[in-house]
């Protein structure tokens, strides 16, 4: 991990935004460009694809969210403009939406906390030397390479009432007291969290381990010479150095877990009832089961704004660093 | 720092982590080779006494399973396997080519753009379910709904941030001086990129290609909402099996899941040292 790269790492996401950004006018940059013949056209194909395939649909969705359009209207222009009605309906009257938002945030917080803790624990283990380290390392990374749909399906099988998980629970519980995982709301939420944690802890492990390996040794030596205990070295020296890496890991995972869909779709379809519905699943059902497309688009923009705020808060701890590095 | 070894307790923790990690994979592979009687037996059967490949055969020949007295599967998975290969390979190719141009352009000629990181992140924050809505409408209007062309266009756009930033991080790793030396030889800048930059970063190019392939192969939601029968991918087919049969065809589903998983795990191990870079858009270089 090099700190300079942080800037690149956070300038991530949709390429078009950075590419469409107006040319810089700072003198140093202009001077540099005078020396270099402009090959900026190299980024053109990327710009075009991104604008046509991402920005245009987003604008259409934004316009749609202010209308009452459904497929029966035919053309989008046949729908009437209803201003912010969709938005107020969602935020004030749609308890299913509000519940989905709260649920998604809760699932995200629990998952990220578990993934970070387990991932960091495993990464610290890998600072020690042991035989077969490379094999263990590869094996522990496997879950993150598997497609989400397959992960969802696999855990759906594991949590079946005659599945292996209940079989193992049955060793400790008498009779037919084993849980029906998909019939009760709290248990179904647990299956979602377990699945998600299994799937993505390896990413935290991987990112944190590469961060730990890059922690410079001199401050650690200095701390030891000054009489710091291993615990103090970890909490006072290693962890603060690791802060940017931790933030990167959290930002990247937060962006994905907020969109949680595939695994839940395979595990519970949001059930029982709507008790495991995530934001994405609810929007999907609105749009493609109930054909409330305009309403779904409005829901999506609320989520977008919320996520922007959330990520901004997550980035706060390393904001000064980012500003500095942007020269 | 002194070399520290694992204590017995920590070694135990590590072994438990390994078992927890591998058990679900073990289970799906075992289910894929179970004959129908073992699929959902109570108590659950861990290792089938008579392993069989009938589940895999059933994927391509829906009647194969009948030899076990189980009704045939309604649909062959052949089309979805070809669909997945077609959509993933073609969209990976375009994503890499376009991303490579953009990466060189951004790394060498953008003069360090100072865009707020936040704005760019926002594209990945938008729930795909919502982007899918306008896609369905626009694609219906221009008649490319339910075609691979439409799906590929989305995949290219969706993976372009990953391919561009990952490739850019590899271009950034190369010193400019190497290209400049080539340019002094009278070659144009563009030529120098083809003869110097790209060959020097072929390792990174390979890793990025596999990484983008993994992303495309895994994609589920867009394929789900944009396919109405003419096109299919493995994830969509897998979800359909679950709906259509209410979970009675465990083995066949598991076989498809294994089939979907194997190429990805192989690709993942091949680029293991670059996974962190890909997932973090080049922020973490190893």
Q: How many distinct helices of chain A?
A: 16
Helix segment count of chain B?
A: 13
Largest sheet of chain B: none
Superfamily (CATH H level) name of the domain at 78-234 and 272-279 in chain B: MetI-like
Into which percentage range does the β-strand content of chain A fall? under 5%
Question: Structural class of the helix and strand makeup of chain B?
Answer: mainly alpha
Q: Would you give the CATH topology of the domain at 78-234 and 272-279 in chain B?
A: MetI-like fold
CATH architecture of the largest domain in chain A: Orthogonal Bundle
Low-confidence stretches of chain B: 114-119
Helical content of chain B, roughly? 55-70%
Rg of chain B: 23 Å
Q: Main beta sheet of chain A: strand number and arrangement?
A: none
Which structural class is indicated by helix and strand composition of chain A?
A: mainly alpha
CATH class of the domain at 78-234 and 272-279 in chain B: Mainly Alpha
Determine the mean pLDDT of chain B. Answer: 84
Mean pLDDT of chain A: 82
In short:
The complex is a heterodimer of chains A (about 325) and B (about 290). Chain A has about 325 residues and is mainly alpha-helical. Chain A has 16 helices and no strands.
Q: How is this structure best described in words?
A:
The complex is a heterodimer of chains A (327) and B (286). Chain A is mainly α and 327 residues long. Chain A folds into two domains: 1-64, no CATH class; 83-325, MetI-like fold (Orthogonal Bundle), CATH 1.10.3720.10. Chain A is 68% helix and 0% strand. Chain A has 16 helices and no strands. In chain A, α10 (185-213) packs across α12, α11 (217-225) runs antiparallel to α12 (230-257) and α12 packs antiparallel against α15. Chain A is globular, with a radius of gyration of 24 Å. With 286 residues, chain B is an all-alpha fold. Chain B has 13 helices and no strands. The radius of gyration of chain B is 23 Å and the shape is globular. The two termini of chain B are 21 Å apart. The model of chain B is unreliable at 114-119 (pLDDT under 50). At the A-B interface, α1, α2, α3, α4 and α6 of A face α1, α3, α4, α5 and α6 of B.
């Amino acid at each position: 991990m090099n700190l300079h790269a942080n800037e690149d790492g956070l300038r991530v996401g949709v390429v078009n935004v950075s590419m469409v950004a107006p040319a810089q006018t700072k003198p140093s940059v202009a001077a540099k460009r005078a020396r270099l013949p402009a090959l900026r056209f190299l980024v053109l194909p990327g710009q075009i694809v991104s604008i046509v395939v991402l920005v245009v649909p987003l604008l259409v969705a934004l316009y749609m969210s202010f209308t009452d359009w459904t497929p029966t209207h035919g053309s989008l222009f046949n729908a009437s403009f209803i201003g912010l009605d969709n938005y107020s309906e969602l935020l004030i009257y749609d308890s299913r939406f509000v519940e989905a938002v709260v649920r998604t945030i809760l699932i995200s917080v629990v998952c990220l906390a578990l993934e970070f803790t387990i991932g960091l624990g495993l990464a610290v283990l890998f600072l020690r030397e042991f035989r077969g380290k490379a094999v263990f390392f590869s094996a522990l990374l496997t879950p993150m390479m598997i497609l989400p749909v397959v992960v969802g399906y696999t855990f759906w099988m594991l949590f079946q009432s005659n599945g292996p998980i209940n079989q193992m629970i049955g060793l400790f519980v008498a009779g037919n007291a084993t849980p029906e995982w998909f019939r009760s709301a709290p248990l179904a939420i647990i299956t979602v969290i377990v699945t998600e944690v299994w799937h993505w802890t390896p990413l935290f492990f991987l990112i944190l381990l590469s961060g730990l390996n890059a922690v410079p040794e001199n401050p650690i030596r200095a701390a030891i010479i000054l009489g710091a205990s291993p615990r103090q070295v970890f909490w006072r020296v290693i962890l603060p150095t690791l802060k940017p890496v931790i933030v990167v890991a959290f930002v990247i995972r937060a962006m994905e877990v907020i969109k949680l869909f595939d695994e839940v779709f395979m595990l519970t379809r949001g059930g029982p009832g709507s008790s495991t519905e995530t934001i994405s699943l609810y929007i999907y059902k609105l749009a493609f089961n109930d054909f409330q497309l305009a309403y779904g688009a409005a829901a999506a923009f609320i989520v977008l704004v919320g996520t922007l705020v959330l990520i901004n808060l997550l980035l706060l701890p390393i904001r000064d660093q980012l500003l500095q590095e942007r020269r | 720092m002194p070399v520290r070894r694992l204590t017995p307790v920590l070694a135990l923790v590590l072994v438990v982590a390994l078992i927890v990690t591998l058990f679900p994979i073990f289970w799906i592979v075992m289910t894929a080779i179970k004959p129908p009687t073992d699929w959902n037996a109570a108590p659950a059967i861990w290792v089938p006494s008579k392993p069989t490949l009938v589940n895999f055969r059933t994927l391509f020949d829906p009647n194969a399973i009948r030899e076990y007295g189980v009704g045939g599967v309604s649909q062959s998975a052949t089309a979805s396997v070809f669909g997945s290969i077609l959509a993933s390979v073609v969209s990976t190719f375009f994503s890499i080519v376009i991303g490579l141009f953009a990466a060189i352009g951004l790394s060498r000629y953008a003069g360090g753009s100072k865009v707020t990181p936040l704005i760019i992140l926002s594209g990945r924050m938008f729930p795909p379910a919502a982007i899918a809505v306008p896609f369905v409408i626009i694609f219906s209007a221009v008649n490319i709904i339910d075609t691979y062309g439409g799906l590929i266009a989305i995949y290219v756009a969706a993976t372009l941030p990953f391919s561009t930033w990952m490739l850019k991080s590899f271009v950034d790793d190369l010193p400019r001086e190497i290209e400049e030396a080539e340019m002094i030889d009278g070659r144009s800048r563009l030529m120098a990129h083809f003869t110097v930059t790209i060959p020097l970063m072929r390792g990174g190019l390979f890793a990025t290609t596999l990484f983008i392939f993994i992303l495309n192969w895994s994609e589920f939601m867009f394929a789900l909402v944009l396919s109405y029968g003419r096109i299919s991918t493995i994830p969509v087919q897998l979800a359909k099996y679950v709906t259509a049969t209410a979970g009675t065809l465990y083995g066949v589903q598991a076989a498809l899941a294994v089939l979907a998983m194997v190429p990805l795990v192989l690709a993942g191990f091949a680029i293991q040292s670059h996974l962190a870079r890909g997932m973090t858009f080049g922020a973490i270089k190893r």
